[in-house]
Amino acid sequence: MTRSLTSFRKSTALKKTLLPLVLLVVIIAFPRRVHAQVYGSQSHTVTVNVATITNVAVSAGSTSLTIGAANVTAGQNLMGPVVNTATSLLWGINSSLKKVTVRTNLVAPKFTLKVLAVAPTQGTASAEVTLNTTDKDFLINLGRSSGTCTLQYTGTALASTGTDTDSHTLTFTIATQ
Fold first, then answer.
1. Which of 44, 63, 77, 121 has the most CB atoms within 10 Å of its CB?
2. How far apart are alpha carbons 118 and 60 in whole angstroms?
């Protein structure tokens, strides 16, 4: 019986010593996380180029002014004015000092059409512009900015001109100041 008790004790002691050793081998051989080994590095250049941006947009597709009996004083040749402020101009500029010009495509209008920049968020509004086919300064001193203004259109006519319709296509252009 002594021999088997000694043998039992040796076997248990061996198990107690081998168990931590086996666990250590398992932990090393099968890690929970695998970490990448970095043997070097690589870099490259990324360049961001920003082009010159000069965007301009009108908020509405078309605007209409109608001169009727309510806009006329008896005995006077001048009829109107009729005013419309339902449209806005929007712009975005990322370069040096610019201005916005305006012109019409109508070579020989029968009636007078004027436009004024009301309450621009950037820059300075020029005086009210009577439209013709020549570019006229509309907004000046526009730096790197984006902004808006209300477009105030004013139409007048002379009774002596009679009735008709003038259809203008207006062009707003961002130009170097």
1. 63
2. 16
Return the bridge partners of 113, or none.
155
The enclosing domain of 115 has a CATH number of 2.60.40
Q: Are 58 and 172 in contact (CB under 8 A)?
A: yes
Residue 95 lies in a domain: yes
Q: Sign of dihedral through CA atoms 171, 172, 175, 177?
A: positive
Name the residue range of residue 61's domain: 54-176
119 beta partners: none
Instruction: Check if the beta carbon of residue 140 is closer than 8 Å to that of residue 124.
Output: yes
Number of domains in the chain: 1
Task: Please indicate, yes or no, if residue 10 is contained in any of the structural domains.
Answer: no
Q: Is residue 137 part of a domain?
A: yes
* E strand or H helix at 115: strand 112-118
Residue among 88, 102, 90, 96 at smallest CA distance from 146 = 90
pLDDT at 13: 60
| Alpha-carbon distance values, 97 to 45, 101, 120, 142 (Å) | 32, 14, 16, 6
What pTM was estimated for this model as a whole? 0.74
State residue 170's pLDDT score: 97
Q: How many CB atoms lie within 10 A of CB 102?
A: 20
